[in-house]
From TrEMBL:
Region (Disordered): 49-97
Domain VWFA: start-end pairs: 197-377
First and last residue of the signal peptide: 1-24
Domain of life: Bacteria
Compositional bias annotation for Gly residues: 49-71
Biased composition (Pro residues): 74-84
Protein name: VWA domain-containing protein
Organism: Polyangium spumosum
Keywords, sorted A to Z: Signal
Amino acid sequence: MKHRSLRLFGVPFLAFASLGGSLAACFAVDGSTSAGGFAEASGGNGPVGSVGAGAGEGHGGGFHGGGGGGDLPTEPPPSDPAVPVPSQDAGTDASTEFTCEGLDDSKPVVLYLSADDSNSMGSPVHVRELIHLGLEPMAHEIRTYEFLNYYKIRYQAPPAGELAIFPELANTAVENELDFQIAVRSYDAVEPRRPMTVTFVLDTSGSMGGPGIERERAAVKALAASLSEGDVVNAVTWNTSNNVVLSGHVVTGPNDPKIVALADGLQANGGTDLHSGLVAGYALAEQHYGPGRLNRMVLISDGGANVGQTDADFIGEKSKDADKEGIYLVGVGTGPAGSYEDRLMDIVTDKGRGAYIYLDDPAEAARMFVDRFDETMEVAARGVQVELTMPWYFQMHKFYGEEYSENPEEVEPQHLAPSDAMIFNQVLKACDPAQIVQADTITVRARWKTPLTYLDQETAITTTVGELLSAQKPGLPKAKAIVAFAEALKSGGHQALVDAHALAKAANTQGDDPELLEVLSILEKHPQY
């Protein structure tokens, strides 16, 4: 039995959950994992399905899923049964030993990889607030790839307009397993940035009272601080009805008084009507759409509204257009964490192709909309897809991205922000360590489209197993510490938390990495540490 802090209808309470349960419950009748991750390895390097997020095991499993978390997903509310539950991880150990028998040594393994959009970063901040409140996060609230987005794994930026690929490989304590990481680094943000049109869709329902409305005000003010003369701002508030409070306002400069006054005047009252807010917001955004401008809708909410299939499809259509850049939706969750359900923001930002961030206090708004403005709002490379070609004797044993497959059609390309990197952290397994040849090659290829002109671009790097093993590892140690941190929070076990703490401490070689120091502090505050 394991103690968990759960939250029902916004009220924290304690429950006891058995660690047992039927493995069959993890799988749908069509042979797919209901929530992705840890797909069972079938052995061999034959065809695979698309493996979902978290830690997928075995490239021969053929299971399909997606997302981040370790518990089984909860069912969607009856009011919107067609809408998928936000991505979650489900984990099982590989039941079939991976051997070389039946493998074709003339056929390399080719996989297509996808991370979630590089600016999806809500999960780690939501979890941070929960732990600071003395609560244990539920496993489905933890999406490991968002931790790799939020905490910076630093690589050298390529020239403007280009992407750079950084593969890293290291031995592990297990003889036939190797830590492998691919970073796809974008160019740094170009200054001055292009003009933007931002449309705020602001939740002012009664549930936003207290911390929610305070964080919403902080988010609007932080964005106001990052705006430039000539930018255009629209705003609509919504509760049981909607109210257009700004339409086509031309910004005078940073901290425009009209936008600051809007933020100060936000009040929480009434019920919730997300649909009318979205309709009014997109109408404003389309009315003031500017070709060549950065067009973004910013939805700020405590997550209390239901999102139906109609809303999800509506958002998806507005985020893409065959002839022009879509109006991407940036989702901002305000909490507070004890009553927050991130299903709303996870769905709308997935459909809206924009960032997902969470504010655990007003200061986080400045961190994301001032210090990391370009990461949160801009796109450097559209539809990034990574192709990995490796020797026949390797399989993908664990994968901490969103999904991978041998079929590129099953892996959805994702956007990459400027001054940012997509991190594909994984564990490779050899069918027999004696088969590993230092001179064998590994190729990583990235394909994408330019943000405005949609021109096809491609870059690739080919190196050998031996060269990778002997090379420096600039990002791998910190990334492994971040992965261990997220996975330990999923398990909630004392030893996993202690082990993650040791790994984070070891990765912080100079003792001055503020993000790793934060990780150590969060682990130490966990109720089971």
